[in-house]
């Protein structure tokens, strides 16, 4: 099969380079095209994640064929690892320990930017604006601002490549406009096809943890008065950090920003109150015998509001 | 302001001081430092590469003449930048044949903001060369080793300082310095056949 | 051309060369056309990367042309001009005016009569902030952690989003998961 390697051949001249058709596109249309392209196209490149003042470069692959999709990230720096998303399943293989971890993540769509609700629904919470055009990695791109309508979520800016509508750069900003996190392609190529990676199955030399499908029972807490737009979408009961007792994990999202709420037995190592790691804010508090923590890529007030609105559901244990 | 820009400003201030104290050769160094930026800036208005050279030279001469009253209330380049814009605008006005016997005051320059610009005088040959050069640069960048490409992209597109890039890439500043230089050299080597 | 000099030119263009070295380099560039050409080419590359088109470069004799015209201009003699800029910008406006008035009193200009460009308030248009300023609420004091974080936080991050499994936080093995789930 012929592999078509695309390089941008669009050059800017001072006047009249954009087609009339381009100039009519709204921010929402561009985002809709982007979501479509992200799922339908085969593309690869080098992605730089800038988080917590730390930069990591990874190779990125997205394969799509007849409704089947696979996303793959391969680290270029130690520790070497590969993260693969096949539909709902995400696996992470660590080369040095030969460990493979599988997880079920039905609510995630992309390693780059997650739109888990329709743009029409998101429009109740965010304003979309076409702010201009810029080059990213020498590709011309639309600059789309996604501005929150309240103080419970962060703003984002997405640079969407003009020909194929793939995201070239995604940035998250705090309430003051300071950059929190960024994902940027330093190169990107669309291909006619890309191979699907077969996720390594367990063998004698590797360890793997697989998902067990079971009925977790009912959530043992409720979240009262979450900020507008945040809805519960997923609940899991997990074993974490060598704890013998399971940890309840509730995921909420407004369609763009997600918040996890955890409840487990009290842990003296985790102080109550707020903390943050990079773009992620946490808020923990003790509730009877338990410790509840709300965390996510949202402002501190949001996780605090959620954590303080948690109530135990007695009788559901 | 980041410390690296402060070093640049300090240098400018020292050079301005030397000019004000009679050392004309110090002004040559300021011209060397900003020649490219000023020619580019002027060309945005004049849109003629050959005439931009003359207008940019004129801007430097005007700046020299005004240097006696430069008090350092702004950075030297900021001040020079403004003089260059006004020089370009004055030139455009003279080309449009308006009655401009008197010199345009800085404050009045904005009145003439909407003067029709002269059409660009790009020749087909120049346009073709421009495309070839840009394409060559793109190809050269794509072929760079990963760490060099990331470093130069962070510098040129994200405007990060060497220190910031070093922190982000978890490597010494000297390594960043070397990567960016080697990236530029690799690109320049590819351009040599086109430009020579 | 010595590679060290070329690297310094690259640093100069990025404003990353210490002042003394920058001065020394500029002096070398002034007398060596090969260095001047290298600088112009590096600048052209930067321009092309950012703007998608070839730059209009200064001609190779640009500096010499300006220099020869400057030779015909009067020479400044401001013997008591002193470095004030960095300090002055920290001064209040009234201090600036007083300092300026004192220095103006002793300026001597050996020249033909020249018309000066009036000193102006230089304003350079700055780029708009990237996002609309969202009204800021009363801030919550938030201790900021840096990596590596503790195991519990790390596990929370990894369970929250698979993007955090891409973190290269050595020493944290993926936690054992036996996951029971219910999808709402």
CATH topology title of the largest domain in chain A: outer membrane lipoprotein receptor (LolB), chain A
Question: How many strands, which pairing sense, and closed or not: the largest β-sheet of chain A?
Answer: 12 strands, mixed
Distance between the termini of chain A: 57 Å
Question: Structural class of the helix and strand makeup of chain A?
Answer: mainly beta
Query: Could you spell the SSE succession of chain B in H and E letters?
Result: HHHHHHHHH
CATH superfamily of the largest domain in chain A: Lipoprotein localisation LolA/LolB/LppX
Task: Note down, in words, how this protein is organized.
- Chain A has 317 residues and is mainly β.
- Chain A is built from four helices and 20 strands.
- Chain A has two domains: 24-191, outer membrane lipoprotein receptor (LolB), chain A (Clam), CATH 2.50.20.10; 213-312, Phosphorylase Kinase, domain 1.
- Chain A is globular and about 55 Å long.
- Chain B contains nine helices and no strands.
- Chain B has helices at residues 3-20, 25-46, 49-66, 76-95, 106-109, 124-142, 146-156, 162-169, 173-195.
- Chain C has a two-stranded antiparallel ribbon with strand order 1-2.
- In chain C, helix 1 packs across helix 3 and helix 2 packs across helix 3.
- The longest helix of chain C is centred in the N-terminal third of the chain and has 19 residues, at 33-51.
- Chain C is elongated, with a radius of gyration of 29 Å.
- The N and C termini of chain C lie far apart (68 Å).
- Chains B and C meet through helix 1, helix 2, helix 3, helix 4 and helix 6 of B and helix 1, helix 2, helix 3, helix 4 and strand 1 of C.
